[in-house]
Amino acid sequence: MRFFRLLKIIFVVLSFGLDEFMLAHHRMRWLQTPLNLLLFMRDISQPRAVRLRLALEKLGPIFVKFGQMLSTRRDLMPTDLADELAKLQDQVPPFSSQLAVSLLETTYKRPLQDVFKSFEQTPVASASVAQVHFGVLHDGREVAVKILRPGIALTIAHDIALIKVAADLIEWLWADGRRLKPRRVIEEFEKHLSDELDLTREAANGSQLRRNFADSGLLLVPEMFWDYCTNDVMVMERMYGMPISQVDNLRAAGVDIPKLAANGVEIFYTQVFRDGFFHADMHPGNVQVAKDGRYIALDFGIMGTLTDIDKNYLAQNFIAFFQRDYKRVAEVHIESGWAPANTRVDELESAIRAVCEPIFDRPLREVSFGRVLLRLFQTSRRFGIEIQPQLVLLQKTLLNIEGLGLQLDPELDLWKTAKPWLERWMSEQVGWRGFIRAVKAEAPRYATLLPHLPRLLHQRLNETPFPYAERAVLMLLKQQQRRNTLLTIIVGILLLQTLWILLG
């Protein structure tokens, strides 16, 4: 099977003239004339980017998803290719309703009518990995049922193996191939696909996001019905909303569009900087709007995470951008480890200034955060900076958010909207408020540790070697030990009192 799949890939590659990517290398140029003579009937008049997009669509959904991911790696891709690959649409015909029913009955080991009071056999959505049906449980709860495509795991495994072979060829043929690490990109893509194939993981992601926004008036996340969720099937609350792309219909329904756009920015920064856990696939197909104007998040297969260190450095970067403090931006890149430790601050500062100054000369509403990150990623090649995978996901999401925001409200000033939020977040991380918050977070550990400090200190002092063990010296040391123990107890009591006040 893999052999025939490989033959099809080779045929499509040659049909769309994609061999030019390989033949551009000096080792392969001798093949150009024979191939042109052999394939004289093919039409390669369209630009290479268009031909690449059409070829990926021809090869099927997994290659389409790979092209979609590549379109976000603008630090790796030439601009013309990235722009064209961004047009890829993951539109896949649904599999049969009979097969969907059979899969559900196999999963639950009982007839479908015993599981659902009603089940709509015509799917409402179909993508490369799964499709969605509506239904009603016997207790009356309306649900959306996501079913994994049968045999998709094997198809993905075969295609990923072939894509890895292509990555090896890129590293061998292309001078810049090793630095761009195509194998690592493929492994990242494989990881995301693996996550999407486990619907239990997706349900857990949705459940976490719902918990994070439980008290929010901005975002609705469907409830997961865990008794009905497996690796191959996910059952969640059915949500009623209007696609966010239907701006005229939203306006007619009385939704405050400028407020909706600003709320989208706030939701994004709350996910990133407060929670470090963000929806990383916020294209219009995954976002709806409820009647009350709240966002509805759908499809949780791709989620991004950031550590506290990532969040802190990222916020410092953004605030330094606001203040046009390019030296601080360069320092943060080096301090975070994103740039090599031996990078000269002045050279990196100069490169960043060249990226940002032309942008700041334009009105703020015309400036894109995502484009700033993109330009910085492209500049990073010169300094050997390896782009962090979590930051690539963040940049992709930021571009999606900006696209949604500007589609809703072309006058939306993303920088003006974000700056107060970031400054407020930073003030909560440093200074007294940050200190108090950190102490509260560590209070349980301190409360457990403090009672043991006198004993631990006593043991440590007893273990201290005495090279001159004269009697008088030992007596002085024991006296000092008692004083240290007493001092430790006093400090411990003061700390406990402080914790009691803070936690009260």
Explain how this protein is built.
The protein has 504 residues and is α+β, with helices and mostly antiparallel strands. It folds into 3 domains: 2-91 and 153-195, no CATH class; 241-429, no CATH class; 435-503. It is built from 23 helices and 11 strands. The chain has helices at 2-15, 19-23, 32-38, 48-59, 61-72, 79-85, 97-108, 112-115, 152-173, 177-180, 182-197, 199-212, 247-252, 257-275, 308-322, 326-335, 345-360, 369-380, 389-408, 414-429, 431-449, 453-463, 471-503, and strands spanning 116-119, 125-126, 130-137, 142-148, 219-220, 233-237, 242-243, 277-279, 287-289, 295-297, 303-305. Strands 1, 2, 3, 4 and 6 form a 5-stranded antiparallel β-sheet that branches. It has a 4-stranded mixed β-sheet with strand order 5-10-9-7. The protein has a two-stranded antiparallel sheet with strand order 8-11. Strand 3 (130-137) and strand 4 (142-148) form a beta hairpin. Helix 9 packs antiparallel against helix 11 (182-197) and helix 16 crosses helix 17. The model has no long low-confidence stretch (mean pLDDT 77). Pfam families: ABC1. This is 2-polyprenylphenol 6-hydroxylase. The chain crosses the membrane at residues 485-503.
Can you tell me the number of structural domains?
3
Beta-strand share of residues: 5-15%
SS summary, helix count = 23
| Poorly predicted segments | none
Describe the biggest sheet?
A: 5 strands, antiparallel
